[in-house]
Amino acid sequence: MSESTVIATRPTPGQPRPYEFPAFQRHALSNGLLVILAPMPGRPLVTASLVVRNGAADDPFTVAGATALAARALSEGTQRYDAVALVEATERLGAGLHADAGWDAATVSVEVPVARLEPALALLAELAAHPTFPPREVDRLREERLNDLLQARAEPRRRVEEAFIGTIFASSSAYHRPAGGLAETVETLDADRLATAWARGFDPARMTLIIAGDLDGGGGRGPVEVAEDLLGGWTAAAGAVAGGPVSSESAVDSLRIKLLDRPGSVQTEIRVGHVGVPRRIDDYAGLSVMSAILGGLFNSRLNMKLREEKGYTYGASAGFDPRRGAGPFAARVAVNTEVTVPALVDLLSELSRIREAPVTAAELGAARDFLVGVFPLRFETPGPVVGALGGIVVHDLPDDELATYRARIEAVGADDVLAIARARIHPDRAAIVMVGDAARIASELEAAAIGPLEVIRDDELAGQEA
Amino acid sequence: MVTPTVAFTDERLPNGLRLIIAEDHLAPVVAVNIWYAVGSKNEVPGKTGFAHLFEHVMFQGSRNVKKAEHIALVQAAGGTINGTTWLDRTNYYETLPSNQLELALWLEADRMGTLLDALSQDNLDNQREVVKNEKRSTYDNRPYGSWSEKLQAHLYPAGHPYHHPTIGSMADLDAASLEDVSAFFRTYYAPNNAVLAVVGDVEPDQVRAWTERYFGGIPANPAIPPVGDLSLPPTLGGEVRETVVDQVPLPRIYFGFRAPAFGDRRLDALEVAMQILAGGKGSRLDRRLVRDDQIAQDVVAFVLGFVGGGSIASGWATVRPGMALERVEAAYLEELDRLTHEPVTDDELARAKALIETEELGALSRVEERADRLAMNATLFDDPALIDTMLARYLAVTAEDIQAVAAEVFRPDNRLVLTYLPAAGSAEEPAA
Fold first, then answer.
1. Which residues of chain A have a CB within 8 Å of the CB of B280?
2. Of A80, A329, B8, B88, whose Cβ has the fewest other Cβ atoms within 10 Å?
3. CA of A248, closest CA in chain B: separation in Å?
4. Are A225 and A279 within one domain?
5. CA of B412 to nearest chain A CA: how many angstroms apart?
6. Is the domain of A300 the same as that of A345?
7. In this predicted model, what pLDDT tens digit does every residue of B399-416 receive, in sequence order?
């Protein structure tokens, strides 16, 4: 076989074609409910999402998980349809209709060809405004959620996440528990409690309908007119109330290790972190660049060290989960059991190093160029456009947040990254939470003297939760 | 609804590289997807997992690209990137702002032409450890994680190219040598064994010029060995059962059947049948096992399409605490059996097709998916134009087609039943 000839010179990019995030307009319905339209010509598969500003963080702790379960139960029955009739009507439209609750908001969303947008919006409105929470279906969903929590205990990845948030957040914070609740709170949920949780957010003044796609393609009435008919007559539910501030109180003030024993594990799941930041901070662009360098890009420091240099893992990452309150900061990695301690040492050393000296020009450039360059890719189709607009609504961000995003990223310098790392990453008061085989790693962890070690075995866990 | 069609061109370079270009200026993005006609089915005994390990090595640099630089350059260009290995093929893809297309073509050409220049024992050892950790994360350290390996092992006889999993075995991964990597590269990573699809905001003449410039000097391999014998009887010839005791909280029953090959019209009908069986909350299995009888936590049914010999029809049900495993198995199988005895209703068929239509519309709206499908149809069926027939084929499926394929596939003598039971100590606690 003859030798390959290839061109050694790396090509340089052409002129980028200008890209702007889709322009959007707000329209207020007669009851104050906002409609945001983002026309995207050539995108006949439309996404519409009703954003209800009432989320898991607004659940009283005793009924943690109520909003998430309520969202799931919306499609289990409404005044006009039982669950089966509803799903059949949705499927006949070729529509995907989903309701879900996050920390800050619940959403009812539909994806449908634009020609069938109007009947799909009618189903969405029926779901949001007239759920009946049939007790038999609510009981079934509650049992399914409890079984899902059992499954989570057996899945190292889910178990370590649950233990991590339970460790870093004080019990006075909603973030101490999963958004879907814990067994002891889910067990208390019934139809009345779900109805109460849903009613809490049902106020047109705090709801927004966001629609993106080729909105001219459907013919007939415009989406605002349709929305006025379907949603414009809504009034606030009794018991509707705006959420207050969310506590993010930390439960950790010095480095400590918690190891949940899972005998026979061939890997150790490791989480290292602490309480992070809320979404509305001034240095959000800097935080994005710093996170990309530390643990976001494939060539991030964590992934390069732990995967590409050491081969300890399939992938290492780190990042913030900004919410209305300060969500967690976590570095995440799963490593083969025998390298648990050296992997942990490397991980901690990277968390310190990002605070010690400015990132290199190459690192800074790669992170900024990625975040700026990938922006148009993120918004190729309507779904992610609706998602990003939902973020603006939920966090009260300025309307030009997306329009100015790339310029703000470009403006981040190495000094900014260093300042943000020093302000936002605290390895000296991080919690290290692991799920792994204690018999194989506990003594080595003890000897490494990284921090005080607490080993939790299954029987103790059961005792704690009884 | 108007069925979307994809306009494309289809040509070959003198060295055999097949180039498919589809122009679409809606968004300023471009997708590059290169498929190599080599997968885990090309592996020989003792060298399982090799195609996938090799895929990792492809990101370790080439003559003009340093270790880890390939992904770094694509990401710094604002692109996303990955590679996947499957039984029938391996592919590499990146989506970028359209002004960065030339970089992607240069990177793909450099590693297709000169990967071995950068190959080192250190890089191989490093990626071997990464892959072993991928296997631990994805299979070994997860509840029910061994199901897919067992499915393949039972449905395809020992020695069949589909018998072993793409991830391979730890022992074979350990045994992979630099010589193996070099030989594999020289054998399969040749332009005449590849299809390059470029879709998006591009000028086709420019794409052609760049492709010729960067790939034109890479020689073909005239001696690509054929894959082993993929033929096998259409059914298992008898029910196979296995019970696995594992660290799982709830029992789960997996079902597996041999099914017609990918590309066979009967498999299209089976795909629609799976939608009717378990495609969401309106489906038969969900309605009966989860909603009405409340004996299962979840139900799933799906098809894994393979071009040679036979595909896999599979599914599972997770047993709710306190419910008898046998009852769940019987109910699941009754629903499969019912498909063989009576036609699905017009309404069920219409709903399934409406959902498939929306799904296809969504998939084809993304340049990445269009590039993937063009390259797939060219690689597996030598016909990229099949991209425009997939939806029509689903829409043409009749109730009789479904009943006929169900009767062929869902036979007791073609059935694998794989049951996971909780080991002592991992079962659910009785309700308080």
1. 87, 91
2. A80
3. 31
4. no
5. 30
6. yes
7. 999 999 999 999 999 999
